[in-house]
Fold this sequence. Notes:
The structure holds two protein chains of two kinds. Chain A is mostly helical. Chain A has nine helices and no strands. Chain A folds into two domains: 100 residues; 73 residues, Winged helix-like DNA-binding domain superfamily/Winged helix DNA-binding domain (Arc Repressor Mutant, subunit A, Orthogonal Bundle). The radius of gyration of chain A is 19 Å and the shape is globular. Chain B folds into three domains: 43 residues, no CATH class; 187 residues, Jelly Rolls; 74 residues, Phage tail protein beta-alpha-beta fold. In chain B, the strands form three sheets. Chain B has a 15-stranded mixed sheet that branches. Chain B has a three-stranded mixed sheet with strand order 17-20-19. In chain B, strands 16-18 form a two-stranded antiparallel sheet. About 12% of the residues of chain B have low confidence. The chains are: A mainly alpha, B alpha+beta. Chains A and B meet through helix 1, helix 2, helix 4, helix 6 and helix 7 of A and helix 1, helix 2, helix 3 and helix 4 of B.
Amino acid sequence: MMSDFNTIFRRYHQPLVLYAHKFVANEDVSLDLVQDVFALIWEKQKLGLDEEHLKAYLFRSTRNACLNYLKHQKVIQKHKQLTSLVNMEIRHFESGEKSLIEKESLAKIHQAIHSLSAIHREVIELSRFEGLKNKEIAERLNIPVRTVETRLFRALTSLKEELSEKLLHILLHICQLKK
Amino acid sequence: MMNDTNIPEQLIARYLNGDCSMEDEELLFRWVKAKAENEKRFLHIKDVWDASWQTSHRDTEQLLKFYQRQAVQKRSRTWPTWLPGAAAAAVLFIGFLLGSLLQPELGNSQAQVESYYVPQGSKSELVLADGTKVKLNADSRLEISADFSAKNRVVTLAGEGYFEVQSDASHPFTVQTDKFDVLVTGTKFNVSSYAEDQRISTTLSEGKIKLTTIKKQVVELNPGEKVSFDQQTMQAKLTKTDVNSDLAWVNGEFIFKDIPFPDLVKRLERWYDVKLKYQSKELEAITYSGKFKNQETIWQVLDALKLTSPIGYKKTNFREFELIYKPM
């Protein structure tokens, strides 16, 4: 039982923190919420579930914890649209849609980042690894902020394509087999 | 400026990673809501953005260890009432959730010594062969020689421990520390003797104890009294004390009365298993009085300090904070 918990923790802790961060946009809050989720599965002895169910359960619990947290935070949210966009996001995932974080391993995601063009990889690394804001990236690279914004969007678009290409290949393969 | 189908690339990038004004957000929200296709598009990009984040603390192993300790701590916060009649086993442990973190280590000396260490960020308790109960505070070690028995009651402590000694007038119980020995028959008392603390002390709650220092000073304590020593000079100070505040840690609480800032920092570091750094001289001069319940996280404690004293903080690394002097 003990080793099961450790295995599960090692496998899902990082993805769950990323998943929580998606909604609450705060690293420490994400860590706290995910810690609570793990405490919960320990207490409720959910470790006996088979892996697929446990995984779904972990992601769902994390999402619910975030939703709960956001409800309590609402009062002090400054930007209304921000919460509506986040709420829209949560509803989207509640409807059964899965995040890349849940579908892909983090290793695969980083591999995909690695295969981006130099110019795209650069903005992703500066923003996602080093935590620089668009304005800071603009200063660092000595280019206008608008250029950074465009590059960032396009980098994310090609990253998305990179990641869904694999799925596409599989689909094409199936089609060819049918013929 | 923006129609429903053109993708507002810059706006989305600004929302994700820039200074997005309220007008910007309003605009983005309207575009997203205009078409189901837009919403899908936005959510996909946001999802890729979220998935590519590299958290600053990737060390899962370190976290796992930390949470295990926290779980132990959490469990021992709601300490069960003392186990009755547990004298049979040599030593009995309670309060473990995730594996046994507190394992006896065999000593190297000829006489076998069992050593019990409680890491930073947790507490534990044990019942000795003679029925004596010991609660060990964070970062403390208790050594019991293999020939410990109801007739030969000697233990060695480094750190802090609260003892409820089974009464036996003909076989006194001895707690040895680096700097002093405490000789008792049947009592309840606390020994705090961390090597790195400025002051070490013993507080008596019930009964009577006799304390002998390495300099052969002898002090006898009555209930409600506390003797403390400056580690350097071993100069003794005997005071009437509020026993509850000295023993508060036993119940998972912290009660500080005029504690010097450096000692406060050390206590919090041990208790929460964090590193607290500071540079300003002003901080060192502060003494702090206040009460914390240990249910609180280090964040809550630091926030409380921020509100009630001229102490500010910022997170510098994993489980590491810098304390800053901020005149109120």
